[in-house]
Structure prediction request, 165 residues.
Amino acid sequence: MTVKKKSCKNIKKKTKQDTSLTPPDNEIVLKKPNEPQKLFCQYYIFGIKVGRKIKWRFNGTYCYGKAYELKMTKKNILICAVGSSRLLRDEKVKVYMQELLEEAGLTNEVADTVLLDLMKHPSSWKARRDGLKEYNKVKGRITRKTEHSVADPLDKLLREIRDNK
Prediction:
């Protein structure tokens, strides 16, 4: 079997790229989200006002449908669920959501302060206990311990033999 070599006449030579427009390696430049993505972020964090109530906060499916102006049919609900999942993993959307939270004054320090107030709440032991549980979960102070045991089939057989004697 013989292998034919392809001619190299049509191959273009690599040219040096203009590096004046590219950012340095240590700097990541993210594009800004488009308008429907921004609306999705706002609806997801702050909810959708329906009448006098705010609904669907942190419900990606309905927020996606509202942002992209889709009617909620069975087919569109599936499309919205997939689309919202994709948007929530998108880096530029995550950055924009973080900016919205910071503009609203919701930072880690504020959350810690509210959690501390909840833990010190003198009138409700349930709220205090729940606050302590959440604090320990967030800080990783207490982990749930689970034990797993696998019975050796040979040990089980030997126990059965001893019990039958």
In short: Residues 157 and 163 are 10 Å apart (CA to CA).
